[in-house]
Specification:
316 residues; alpha/beta; Arginase, Chain A; eight-stranded parallel sheet; 32% helix; 17% strand; globular
Length: 316
């Protein structure tokens, strides 16, 4: 049943260029708010990119994504899902990072998400670089390892960077498997491509049973077949969805730090999410939107459109 408090502001009532920019024009309900305990899906910003190893900028992503999200309306035009009538959703605000300390920031993020878990709130996160996923998974996967559907052009399974640095945007899922947060037999990575340093990440995936679907296989088999396999891999258990915007070809999403050519188009970027309906999604994220490389705002709008599709999957 629709609760007026949790209903986004309509563009028919207030122009989309007016008012405070919250995610999808939802109410701002930070921890401690009198209605916090009623929230079912919380949209959270992680403005942090200290895991970036080349082109920084995703720390500015949540602010741009919020602004772009004012264009999101109430109903999914393809599936008919009206998520805000199914779920009580709210913008929970940002987790304030410590830009000078990677470990402290990860502890801050995990503590915030521990609060969401305790309150029974499923998170939909806007990053930030992909290292943001690790502290989130430390909260969500503490009780039992999760499955994950991971859309990306990179595996993020490296042992370490620059002599062994364990915490970069290229290592979060290696750490998550090592820490028992993910069940490697229920991990599927889709869209992987580009030049490589070496095969260390792929070798690790093979050694623990992670399914890596490269972009050549994705296009050869087709979206429907690949996503059917992804659903089979994660099964009926609790599942996380992590979506790096560089999964999408940079012709459609140039605003990211590590773009890789030869990827899916913007239609496929949305369509893959519609194949997640029915999965037990305990949380999801959209990461690596980098405003300094997104002068037109097109990447951010695609990013929040994907977030809406993920929200619809959580509602379905």
């Amino acid at each position: 049943m629709t609760d007026a408090f949790f209903t986004p502001v309509s563009g028919f009532d207030l122009p989309r260029f007016a008012g405070l920019a919250t995610f999808m024009r939802l109410p701002h309900v930070p921890p401690g708010h009198e209605r916090y305990s009623e929230v079912e899906v919380g949209l959270v910003g992680l403005p942090w990119d200290s895991g970036t190893t080349n082109r920084p900028g995703p720390r500015h992503g949540p602010r741009q994504l919020r602004d772009a999200s004012t264009m999101i309306r109430a109903q999914n035009g393809a599936t008919g899902i009206r998520p805000f009538e199914v779920l009580r959703c709210a913008d929970l605000g940002d987790v304030g990072p410590n830009p000078a300390d990677v470990l402290d920031t990860m502890d801050r993020i995990t503590a915030f998400y521990d609060g969401l878990v305790a309150a029974g709130i499923r998170p939909l996160t806007a990053g930030g670089d992909h290292l943001c996923s690790l502290p989130v998974l430390r909260a969500l996967g503490r009780g039992a390892p999760l499955g994950i559907v991971h859309f990306d052009s990179h595996t993020d399974l490296y042992r370490g960077y620059f002599g062994g640095s364990a915490y970069t945007h290229g290592t979060p899922f290696r750490r998550a498997v090592e820490e028992g947060l993910l069940d490697p037999g229920r991990v599927v990575q889709i869209g992987i491509r580009g030049t490589m340093y070496d095969s260390e990440d792929r070798d690790f995936a093979d050694s623990v049973g992670i399914r890596v679907i490269g972009i050549e296989e994705y296009f050869r088999r087709g979206l429907n077949d690949v996503m059917a396999e992804a659903r089979d891999i994660v099964g009926e258990g609790e599942t996380y969805v992590s979506y790096d915007i560089d999964f999408v070809d940079p012709a459609f999403a140039p605003g990211t730090g590590t773009p890789e050519i030869g990827g899916p188009d913007s239609y496929q970027a949305l369509e893959v999410c519609r194949h997640l309906y029915g999965l037990d999604i305990v949380g999801a994220d959209m990461v690596e939107v980098s405003p300094p490389f997104d002068p037109t705002g097109a990447t951010a709008y695609l990013g929040v459109s994907v977030m809406f599709e993920l929200l619809c999957a959580m509602a379905a």
